[in-house]
Amino acid sequence: MTTPDIAARRALGACAALMVGALTLTACGGSANATDDGKGGKDSPKTSTAKIAISAKDGSTGASINATGVKVSDGRLTDVKMTVAGSGQTVPGAISADGHSWKPNARLERGTKYQIAATAKDSGGRTAAANSIFTTVSSSNSFIGTYTPDNGSTVGVGMPVSFTFDKSITDKKAVQSHITVNSSSGQQVAGHWFGDRRLDFRPQEYWKAGSKVTLNIDLDGVQGAKGVYGVQKKTVSFTIGRSQVSTVDARTQTMTVVRDGQTFKTVPISAGSPQHTTYNGQMVISEKFVQTRMNGSTVGFGGEYDIADVPHAMRLTTSGTFIHGNYWYNRGNPPFGREGTSHGCVGLADVQGAQGDTQAKWFFDNSLVGDVVIVKNSPDSTVSPDNGLNGWNMSWSAWTAGSAA
To answer: Which of 66, 91, 129, 178 could serve as 82's disulfide partner, Cβ 3.0–4.6 Å?
Structure first.
């Protein structure tokens, strides 16, 4: 039989156990209705209402190198730190003016592990935190397109938009449909595939002088081939400058420069020799060099020439055709304009060192990347459309037939 004292002690012990349990529940689980918010209110939540979302989930692989970032709802970000995992190298970034998002200042590297630690506060000053360690999409499982022209550039009327991809593209329609090119001139623009790694865009006729062209690249996450996804998302704009089309006549050894429909200047030239003729056709200046080395062994001519300082050189084909200054021409040759003596390039009178008031310097200074140089009356064939940026040598019907969209 239980005595009163023993019963009382048991009752007290039970009450103590209940009190400890209640304290434990409050300390670990929190109470949504009975905690203080720091301002004396008893009905506000103890935990922050700010909800942080890091786009790359913790432990994930294949994260975007463009779209990775941090967002917060019901609060403002106070600090975001992004580092390269392992090295601790900081990745610079910025919180938006409204405090609702953060993103890196530059595109991330492929196949790299990163860590993000973010904190935010809600309207009551309560702090929330989130962390993620993730790996970006690998180089083997992604593709990138190198493109021209550059953002903000001013180019000639013949400049196409040209992509070269680092992987073979099998789903050309998917890739092309996520690249759009629009002009303020209203010209229709179509794409054309040269093989499975190059995609160019151009209008039917040369771009209208002074127009603005906008290139929208939306390839992030687009599958270009089995297990291979795009990683680019960018908008690029460039301006078409004045119209300049120069025509080289290999028969008369002259070049006539036409600016905005009017003859600007005619200069004597030296085109390819009878043994090494110059391509016919419409060619687009793709690069400009004040001076460059030209070595015949790099373009199939063995040791016939190696000139370390060719002045005022502008590339017309990938295979090595340039229009450039020639300071060595007058060594035993007739004056410019009499005969072609080059290995297929178009030469203009110049001096060594790229200095002085010469015809080559004048043409160099008055030319843009994207200007058109047409060669006619040469005994050679027409340049291949994919040898340089020279798709203008295809008819519009042939060009659009090569579109996948």
So the answer is: 91
